[in-house]
Amino acid sequence: MFENIVGNNKVKTILSNISNPSHAYIFLGSEGIGKFLFAKKFAYKWLCTSNNRPCGVCKACIQFKSNNNMEFNVIEPLDGSIKVDQIRNFIKNVYEKPVESYKKIYIINDADKMTDSAQNALLKILEEPPLYVMIILVGSNEQAFLNTIKSRCIKINFQELSIKELKQYFENNGETINEKFLDIYQGSIGRAKKISGQEGIYLELEECILNIKNLNKVEFVKRCTKDINKDNIKDILEYLNILMFKFGKDNLKYLEVISEINDAIKQCRFNCNMEMVSDNLFLNMYDAVL
Ligand SMILES: [Zn+2]
């Protein structure tokens, strides 16, 4: 059932061996490692109406494959969060019995972005779910869930992919992977894809740092920060950390910058002024290294 998904072999075994599924699951693990894909395949299996699930040929399977199975629903964040109204709509829908399958399945993707009131509304369904319903919450931040929600779901933990599995994934898709960046992919296909579209930025950054002696301070800061934005700053800071360790082998001064980079990473979590953080970081890097 999960043959085409790379990685998470333990999860494959667990999910494949379930013969009587529960009403609620919570799929937890880093972003970009395939949790949603697993949830979808699991739903496909349990919407099938034949004995040999998923058969691929029954009406429910055919509808699922053409994105037309009415008993399959995905709820996702709108403007960054899943709001109580979305859960209320879902509750209205949940009591209508399934027609095409024996089950009705809901995936709440990025469920860790549910507001507290959305989670409280969801709790009512989790406390007394209709017999036919299956809800799969997919999320990366376990702390964001209320304990009352977690205690009513079966938890499935996902692991980051190994370097070998990452390579396998890209090979299967006929894509190449830049080995130079393997460390910052952190076992996440999603992250690898995001970064491989921006390799130029990372290479330029490395080039500037290598050439630091030939640049004046203003030039250095300007070139290093020009492509940094709120979407890539965290990945870039983590890459800088790796670079500092690498360059630090020949010049200890680079190692002095590491604690500063870690501070900047922390600041980024609190929606700080990103430009100020990156300007300061590269200014201090220049002073520390030269
Ligand atoms: Zn089927």
Brief rundown of the structure:
The chain contains 14 helices and 5 strands.
Any overview of this molecule?
This protein is α/β, with parallel strands linked by helices and 290 residues long. It folds into 2 domains: 151 residues, Rossmann fold, CATH 3.40.50.300; 92 residues. It has 14 helices and 5 strands. It has a 5-stranded parallel sheet with strand order 2-3-4-1-5, with helices on both faces. Strand 3, helix 5 and strand 4 form a beta-alpha-beta unit. Helix 4 packs parallel to helix 5 and helix 11 packs across helix 14. The structure holds zinc ion (ZN). The site of zinc ion has 8 residues, from helix 3.
SSE map:
Elements: H1 9-16, E1 24-28, H2 35-47, H3 59-65, E2 72-75, H4 84-94, E3 104-108, H5 116-127, E4 133-139, H6 147-150, E5 154-157, H7 163-172, H8 182-185, H9 189-196, H10 199-210, H11 217-225, H12 233-248, H13 258-269, H14 274-289
Parallel strand pairs: 1-4, 1-5, 2-3, 3-4
The structure holds zinc ion.
Keywords:
290 residues, alpha/beta, Rossmann fold, 2 domains, five-stranded parallel sheet, 5 strands, binds zinc ion
